[in-house]
Amino acid sequence: MRIALYQPDIAGNVGTLLRLAACMDVGVDLIEPMGFPWSDRALARAGMDYAGQVDVRRHADWEAFLGAATGRIVLATTAGAMPLPHVRFERDDILLLGSEGAGVPADVHARADLRVRIPMRSGLRSLNVAVAGAMLLGEALRQTGGWPAA
Fold first, then answer.
1. Using one digit for the tens of pLDDT, what is the confidence trace for 69-86?
2. What domains, with CATH codes, occur in the chain?
3. Sign for the pseudo-dihedral over CA of 130, 97, 3, 49
4. Within 10 Å of residue 122's Cβ, how many Cβ atoms?
């Protein structure tokens, strides 16, 4: 199981998701360009002191990421066809999260093997990307027996 972030805009959200990944023992793919400079200093500002505990792979662009991807690409989207409670996850899924400001473009949306929508109260736009990622990852780990050993 991996988390992939498509052109993330906010260092704090990346830091939160890296911390989640470290604690849950899953890898992270960062698909560039990012909306902030990647550096130890940027991670420190985001409160990310677990960076050394995560398998982070940086990809120059979407095509480079696709060339390295080995599992199903499961996109979290407000325009997803399948509500989260109906999704069946697989152990090698890659949970793809779009950028905070723009989500993902149409070609990335179309390329996803599975598109997932988190059901929400009507009239509200979306969840924070780190919160959405945590919800997807928690359910995926529950279904696949992938919780880390204590």
1. 999 999 999 987 899 999
2. 2-144 (3.40.1280.10)
3. negative
4. 5
